[in-house]
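> Could you send the ATP-binding cassette domain-containing protein prediction when you get a chance?

Sure thing. Input:
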Amino acid sequence: MAVTPIVISGLVFRRGGRAVLDGLTASIAATGITAIVGPNGAGKSVTLRILDGLLQPDAGEVRFGRGAGADVRRALVFQRPALIRASVEANVALGLAAAGSGLGRAARRERIAAALHRVGLGDRARDPARKLSGGEQQRLALARALVGGPDLLLLDEPTANLDPGATEAIEELVRGEAAAGTKVILVSHNLGQVARLADDLLVLDRGRAVEHGPAQAVLQAPRTAEARAYLKGELPWTAFAAA
Ligand SMILES: Nc1ncnc2c1ncn2[C@@H]1O[C@H](COP(=O)(O)OP(=O)(O)OP(=O)(O)O)[C@@H](O)[C@H]1O
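Output:
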């Protein structure tokens, strides 16, 4: 199914006596690329994991349209691709298994080949995954995420370790995926990347949404002190002291 607007209401996630998410509320459009930015520890990765279903909040909820999202196919790509010590194609096959696809063997092979072709690794299917470069490994992680045909693609700093060329290749893929109708939510500290990719921008600070709007508007003229502090690269306490 296509993802309907994602409504995040009052998410609380407590760990170690601290509220990592402290009433996070946001409404995210059903299409396009949403970027989430904010200082270290703001709760961005936890938010992505809750959206993926990997973590459960202590309070609050996420709704996809009217439902809780059981029928929304989700895939999460991490900063460091967690690949198994096997061939490139075996790694992609894991993504099909996770998507619970009831396909026959030939159809599975076709889907895997198509996903590898999509990320430019069509001729590397039999290679050991560990032989790939960092950028190729991240493209492989994307192929594994895409092979199940996700409605919602969650990306957690997917290019943090990559050089500009490899970053551009991933950005191109992400843009294409969003244009084809997959909803993308991207966590990134790379504000250039946010400016290149994002339609809307959600700024988190200490477990709350402090600003959310069209990406270019938020980047150019943030309205809140917290968003300004983060976007200008200032230390938060300096900015608050000055505010
Ligand atoms: N599964 C978990 N269990 C317990 N604590 C967690 C878990 N995941 C994250 N945390 C804690 O929650 C806090 C926020 O983490 P999170 O990774 O969401 O921040 P972030 O905004 O993504 O930061 P960064 O920019 O550094 O990646 C951290 O203190 C982290 O240790």
